[in-house]
Write a sequence for this structure.
């Protein structure tokens, strides 16, 4: 899963002075390239670091840095209730969502992992029904198309050869979707402090899981693995998320969330060019069908909101 928490963090983001006509395209470019590349970054980091400790170290570093920066800027400390809600949301989004992606990439390619994670909006549309927001007819059409894509993707050799990897990725997408739907109705920390608190809480949970399952940090990690870990923490968790906040504040929501369509093909391209990953016909067909389904749901929601 890529590394956003709740989009409610946008509302209190400080307004930048620079011209948004220049910075919005630059921020979008960062989202497309950086978040699309994080899947390959995870694969490189897994050369030395075990999956759950990898995710834990990544979010500890990013969470501490963001939390300290926000406190120095005068942001309020979360209340006990907000810490609790941030912990639950962080475990769902970052613990299950990202931790299981790291686990799955031990068994499947980085590009395929990105494609399966792109099915998250399909589960989000279903979980919204738990709160009375049932999908419309057009959204149901998008759901059926998207889940057909998931089925096609599982017919390919990449996922059919690793059922545990496929299962982990689907749970990751479902957890991210449920956590997003649940957190929107909770008392969460204000502004970007929401994200910092979630990263800190999720990092502790994944540290416990990693140590409980026998994971240990490597004594002599490779330079490439350590560089990938630093890249994930700095660029994937801080730079790209800041760019996401900026785009959400200064552009249409449809444009801000367009990364969901761009990241999977970007991740596949990075995997093929830099890691020698292969993509079969079922993989390409499944990716195309999933993205069509996600696009149909997004358009249907925009039309319903505009009424």
């Amino acid at each position: 899963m890529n590394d956003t928490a709740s989009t409610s963090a946008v509302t209190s983001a400080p307004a930048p002075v620079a011209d948004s006509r220049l910075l919005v395209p630059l921020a979008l470019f960062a989202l497309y390239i950086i978040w699309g590349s994080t899947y390959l970054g995870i694969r490189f980091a897994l050369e030395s670091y075990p999956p759950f400790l990898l995710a834990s170290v990544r979010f500890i570093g990013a969470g501490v840095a963001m939390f300290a920066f926000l406190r120095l800027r005068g942001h309020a400390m979360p209340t006990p209730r907000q810490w609790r809600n941030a912990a639950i949301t962080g475990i769902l989004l970052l613990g299950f969502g990202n931790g299981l992606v790291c686990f799955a990439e031990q068994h499947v390619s980085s590009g395929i992992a990105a494609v399966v994670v792109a099915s998250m909006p399909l589960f989000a549309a279903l979980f919204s029904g738990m709160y009375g927001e049932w999908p419309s007819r057009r959204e149901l059409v998008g759901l059926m198309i998207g889940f057909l894509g998931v089925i096609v993707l599982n017919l390919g050799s990449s996922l059919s050869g690793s059922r545990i990897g496929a299962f982990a990725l689907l749970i990751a997408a479902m957890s991210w979707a449920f956590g997003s739907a649940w957190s929107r109705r909770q008392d969460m920390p204000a502004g970007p402090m929401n994200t910092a608190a979630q990263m800190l809480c999720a990092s502790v949970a994944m540290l416990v899981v990693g140590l409980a399952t026998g994971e240990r940090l490597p004594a002599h990690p490779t330079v490439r693995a350590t560089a990938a870990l630093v890249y994930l923490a700095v660029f994937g968790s801080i730079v790209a998320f800041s760019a996401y906040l900026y785009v959400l504040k200064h552009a249409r929501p449809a444009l801000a969330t367009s990364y969901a369509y761009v990241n999977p093909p970007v991740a596949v391209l990075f995997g093929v060019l830099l890691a020698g990953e292969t993509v079969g016909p079922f993989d390409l067909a499944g990716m195309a069908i999933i993205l069509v389904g996600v696009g149909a749901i997004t358009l249907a929601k925009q039309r319903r909101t505009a009424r």
